[in-house]
Amino acid sequence: MSQTNHKTSLLLRFGIGLMIIWLAFQVANRFQFRLDMTEEKRYSISDATKNLLGRLEGDVVIEVYLAGELPSNFIRFQKGIRETLEEFAIYSTGSFDVRFVDPTQAQSTQARNQFFQGLINQGIQPTNLNFSKDGQNTQKMIFPGAIVTYQGKELAVNLLKGSRAGNPDEIINQSIEGLEYEFANTIQQLASSGRKRIGLVTGHDEPDSTLLGGLTNLVLSKYDLFKVNLPEKSTPLVGYDLLLITKPSAEFTDDEKFLLDQYVMKGGRLAFFMDVLSINIDSALMSSSVAIPVKTNLEDLLFKYGVRINQNYVADLNAGQLPVITGNIGDQPQITMLDWPYFPVITNYGTHPVVRNMDAVMLKMASSIDTVKAPGVNKYPLFSSSANSKVIGYPVEVSLNDLRGTLRPEAFQAGPQVMGYLLEGNFTSLYKNRFAPPAFRNVDKIDDGAKSKIVVIADGNLITNELNPENGQPLPLGTMPYSQSSYGNENLVKNIIDYLVDEDGLIQTRSKEVKIRPLNKVKVRAEKVQWQIINIVIPIVLLILFGLVKVYLRKRSNKF
Hints:
alpha+beta, 4-stranded mixed sheet, 8-stranded mixed sheet, 560 residues
């Protein structure tokens, strides 16, 4: 009877255990939670991304073209992509189908080349890898990007981002940090029912359409773009998510400034890309030229909002190149690429997500910016020149002699100069305690504005493009045809626009940080034997001791 009761008790305990496990699974399935124990929360995604994924009404298919034989750092990159998309799948209301594809596994060379060309046509940029395997050098073309498909629409996204100034491991790390934003931003574009409206302010001798072709193409890839001729406007500016002021060279009237000011007071966003000095570079290269002030009549408006663009040029030893005719071979001019200090190359960025992990950007004839008191406005420096800079105040004479000989480092000791600011907060109207212009006396004037954002860049050339010397077509922003180099100008402008019109806060995901924790190679070499003993010998010794103790206890129990 006692034995029967014992068996019944064991079966009852076993059944209760199964029931507890079943209930635990049910509770875990209904009330899911995830705990990220990493210091920088590398496995967590932002609330903005969760909200976006929770609004999806269909399935998402993502093909990632990073598979096959890869070096260790790209395997880590691939793992980061997989982990990010696994997190996306958890919070998505639809299914998340993720496939990793190796483009090199086509059946024939012709099929592989066609596949490569198709990916390039869709916008995925290839990268050539050189790495060692089994003592042999291996070369492979990879496509570190993906194509995202949602509700019959698809978009390509390049995933290898970061500053070229860093080493390969740092670039990979920066790319991993940006994965959430790149995928979330792409999905947002596909899921958006309506496109944001961006206005391009005209009527002040702005550059013509060929020089703004790169900007136009960039904006139209994601937003709707409209020309806003301010001299013809007589009613308040409405219906635009952002207005771009692109290198004006003629004055804004008081009526036009009032329109811009009241647009900001209602929460509208502005981006200024401005020059305060103008110079003919061709004349400067022939002999010399003096920069003259550009009168836009916007100084008091910017001052009221919290910044002042100085009438100077910032020269930098970290500079881009300019093609200069240095002689002739026969009847053909000999062109040499020389460093031009007035074309500073920017690698010194602020901490704001807009400029996090940005590649180098090249400015042309840029000025410095100072901040002034503006209650209720936060001012974030976006980028600055290097420590090896100098400031040349007005009047500025620019000469070909600046290119000749070695530039003396001792002359470039002014330190970093900020040339781009983000202003954010509640702005005060320029017309507070002032009468509105006569044409708007019957308009209800707003003196203290709603929360808004303004970006001020002291270089109008940032949004102008070069032309292809072969066909005269606009090149992407930051592409330099003569030096065969490409800078991050397009990405910078894109980030600025995205941030200014972003209501969901996705751009904040760019602030994610994934720390690299490399091993101390010197310490590894010094303590190699010690850690080999700890990891190999000690576990074996412990196992033997455990066996001996168990045998001893068994023999002892048998005696009794």
